[in-house]
Every structure is written in C-alpha cells, then in structure tokens.
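Example 9 (inverse folding). The structure is encoded as follows.
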C-alpha cells in the first residue's frame, strides 16, 4: 500500500506464493511417487479453481498454502533422517512461519507429530524440533487465548453443518444442483479407501495417487 503500485501490485505477493506452492507440491509428490506424478500434481493444483481464485486475492491464503506445502515437503525429507539436519531445521522454520501466518496451521504440525507417533518414528531429534516449534509459537497462542482474538467479531461461530457445507463447496457441491449432493459422500469414501490402502500396502501408492488426483480434479 505504501508503494502505491495499484491493485496489480497488491495481488503480486499472493501470486508469487501460489506459484511457490505449486512448485513445493510437485517436489513433495515427486519424492514420494516420481517425476510423472509430481508434474501431474502441479498441473492439478495450478488449475484448481478454488486455489486459482485465492491466488489472485490480496490476502494471506496462498501464503498459507505455500507454507503448508513447504512444511510437508521438508517433513518428508526430514522423516528419513535420524538426526537434526537441514531438512529438520527448514521444516521447523516453515512450521513456525505457517503458524504465524494462520493460527490453524498448528493442526498441520500436530498431524505431522501424530504421523511420527503412529509410525513409531519419534526420535530425540524430532522431540527437540517440535519442542522448539512449540516454544516459538507459544507467545502467539497465549496472546490469542488471553485476548480472545482467535475468532473475528464479524463472523458467526461455525457449526458442524457450516463446516460440512464448506467442505462440499470446496470439492464441487452446489445446492442449486441436487445431483451434486453425491459428490461429498463419494469423495469422502474415495479418500478413506485410498488412505487405508496407502497405510496397508506401499505397493498401492501409485493407485492412491491416481485416485486422489482424479478426485481433486
């Protein structure tokens, strides 16, 4: 705003972070499934209408997505290590930056910690990294809890129905088109099946990736 570059200038930062999110997503999927799936995931994310819309907004949404994609990528690299290395340090850095960008980012960090616990990969190094993350984000969390500023005054508190409707909208549900009510349960069923398959058998990973990408597309 201070540079007075107009609307296009204000939107530039969101576009940059959106492009970074596409790159980070492709890198992570490439590490897990190979070059072809990495390219496919980049195309699917880049052409996703929901993502594309907010990539042009002068708001922090694409920044949060970039932070999440980067954290997931670095987490994947760091999970193969048993000691603190550059990947763990980068993961910790982007985890902290993500929380300070959007407080709900703490749930992503918590899911990573849960993944380590479920797979029995918790090591002294990971304990140190997550302790450091917790220490660095604690001031923000305590401030929000003490000030009551965790929820904006201009929004009503969401109900379970609101959350379900939002999820449906994000994946294609349209209340004006009754037939689309099938999209939500079918999508949830696909995600559940492929998630179980991914956990149960590593050989199913290509099938899992194909199903997920098809669902998102």
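The amino acid assigned to each position is listed next.
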């Amino acid at each position: 705003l201070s540079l007075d570059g107009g609307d296009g200038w204000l939107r530039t930062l969101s576009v940059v972070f959106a492009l970074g999110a596409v790159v980070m997503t492709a890198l992570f999927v490439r590490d897990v499934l190979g070059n072809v799936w990495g390219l496919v995931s980049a195309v699917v994310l880049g052409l996703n209408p929901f993502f594309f819309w907010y990539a042009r907004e002068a708001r922090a949404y694409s920044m949060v997505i970039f932070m999440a994609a980067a954290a997931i990528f670095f987490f994947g690299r760091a999970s193969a290590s048993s000691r603190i290395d550059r990947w763990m340090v980068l993961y910790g850095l982007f985890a902290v930056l993500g929380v300070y960008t959007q407080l709900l980012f703490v749930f992503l960090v918590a899911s990573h910690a849960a993944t380590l616990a479920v797979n029995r990969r918790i090591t002294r190094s990971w304990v140190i990294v997550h302790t450091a993350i917790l220490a660095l984000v604690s001031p923000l969390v305590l401030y929000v809890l003490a000030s009551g500023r965790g929820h904006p005054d201009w929004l009503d508190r969401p109900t379970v129905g609101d959350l379900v409707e939002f999820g449906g909208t994000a994946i294609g549900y349209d209340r004006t088109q009754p037939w689309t009510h099938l999209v939500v349960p079918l999508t949830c069923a696909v995600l559940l099946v492929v998630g179980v398959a991914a956990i149960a058998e590593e050989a199913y990973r290509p099938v899992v990736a194909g199903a997920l990408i098809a669902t998102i597309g």
